[in-house]
Amino acid sequence: MRNYIKYPPFKWRKYKGQCIPQGPSFRWAREVTIRLTNCTLALHLPRHAPQPGGDTGEWRILPRVYDLVGRNHNDRVMPSQSWLHEDIAAREWAFYGPWFTGCMGYVHFSLVGLRLSEPNSQLNFLHPRALETGALGYTTACWGHEVSGNKAYYQAPLNWESLDHLPLPALRFDMRRVVQAGECERFVFFPVGRGKLISIGFVCHQYATGTQEEIDARVSP
Q1: CA nearest 140: which of 179, 184, 187?
Q2: Among 3, 125, 130, 157, which one is least packed by beta carbons within 10 Å?
């Protein structure tokens, strides 16, 4: 839990050296539930706490059953329109440096339901290999078309890991901007049915300039 005396939301001085900012605690956050057609998700989720004046918007969890029928993405986001999505939850948390050094970055959280636009009866996301195919296919459809000059704008998947401690197949990986430093994304994917996935995303922004190594040396990721 953030110490509001040591980590206030005000900036009166600059921080020297590497800053390890502090934000909300998942450990002490209350449990929220999300009702889906075939199951219920329960997770500890800190309340929406963005930087003052920098709110990107909260998706409130509604007291209803999410059937994950989904809708099309914006054409600019996904030109192929190969996946449907249902926005379920989004929150943002600011992270502050100690002793009046202000906001040093923020994390944006999102939880989205996914399904293929054209269902494939041969594909079962409850199988680990199919889950991997789905996660990579969705990532490619969303970000694979983005380029800067002749370079891909994003690099993924990085730090790929299967989450074997969960009672269902799940995986996570990171994604970084190749052209612009200071932002890293982490994704978790798991199935909630033969043809339905949940994608959990954490987008980390660090308020510093330079290469990614220089930014990490100033603001701990």
Answers
A1: 187
A2: 3
As to burial, measured by CB atoms within 10 angstroms (0-12 exposed, 13-18 middle, 19+ buried), residue 88 is: buried
pLDDT single digits (tens) 82-97:
999 999 999 999 888 7
The mean pLDDT value for 198-206 works out to 93
- Provide the residue range defining the domain that includes 207: 31-218
Q: Is 194 within the bounds of a domain?
A: yes
Radius of gyration of the chain measured on its C-alpha atoms: 19
The number of domains in the chain is 1
Rounded Cα distance, 220 and 98, in Å: 13
How does DSSP classify residue 38? S
Which tokens hold the place of 152?
A: 């891909």
Distance CA 91, CA 80 (A): 28
Q: Is the link from the previous residue into 169 a cis peptide, with omega within 30 of 0? A: no
